[in-house]
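Changelog note: in this version the structure field was regenerated for every chain. One regenerated record is shown below for reference.
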Amino acid sequence: MPLAHRIAIIGAGPGGLTCARILQRHGVEVTVHDLDASPAARDQGGTLDMHPESGQLALRRADLWDEFTGLARPDGQQMRLVGRDGRILFDHVPDEGDDAQGSPEIDRGQLRALLLDSLDPGTVRWGHKLTRVEPLDGGGHRLHFDGRGSTETDLVVGADGAWSRVRRLLSAAEPVYTGVTFVETGLDRADLRHPRLAALTGRGTMMALDDSKGFVAQRNSGGHVRVYVGMRTPQDWHRRRGVDLADHDAVRHALLAEFAGWSDDLLGFITETDTGYTNRPLFALPVPHIWEHRPGVTLLGDAAHLMSPFSGMGANLAMLDGADLAHTLIAEPTLDAAVRAYEAVLRPRSLAAAEGAAEGIAGAFAPDSAAQTLAHMSRFAEA
């Protein structure tokens, strides 16, 4: 591909940064625009398991494998299922020999920092909130940023997440509420301050799911345990119950009422919070999400295939998207040929992943979710 082409990536998430890293390694100039004021402007979320065929492959293509293994936590692959009475129903701890083929965990913030540090200084333009994309003759676009002027590009890559502005150039689809809401909370210095809950969590992920609700607790680095209290509920559940989300006492009482009859051990994930409560309704794009090809623009990651976290594929697919797009841009003779080749690969795999995610969240928050999850975990351990 001629190096004179201007490429702008909107969004400094794992997918966009992976794409930028690989392009730079091959001498292609690229700019990343992100609305955050700085890399530390907001919490990046919990932990990710990097899959061999997607996230790990993207890291190898980006020549960042050694750096990743220095940060990853193979013991974070432990999967535990707990009944609503607090009994451990399933506990899978991978053998030490499984590490190379497994899916070791890494904090989202650590992964983002790893990718950011691999880029040339000044690649990411912080505080650039995209407000409008103006099509130009010849397939290019002018990007307008809030208070930051505008710039022109030959290819704009929408890596700007669930509520992507770039997606509006290609599709009228909007994310739809899945019917499930997480209330996020967390435990700091868990082994020291909350030993009972830390032991129940284990070294990886603990789930307790039953009757269309449940708990997911995940080990993060630095002794932190991130907790998601999940419910199949109307999106405005708090308004219907007269709960002010800023009133943590009111949220705690509402959650305890929702989980009445559950084990005191599990209820501790609600009552012993160190971080307060953050309401997080889960959204997904319609399945399938497809669009007509348009010169000079494409999508990757959540902008292309937002799905529930119960696929475990979101960040992994975003990084693989970024790697594949970068390689087609390098290999194909024209921008348009590269984007067409990339989209031909993207669509079938994102459809399969999105269908799996929809099935996953439906099963995890079904009336018989305990039995469904136990069966799923048993099949996973035998694979």
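Spot check on this record: The radius of gyration is 21 Å. Residues 7-74+106-174+285-364 form a domain with the FAD/NAD(P)-binding domain fold (CATH 3.50.50.60).
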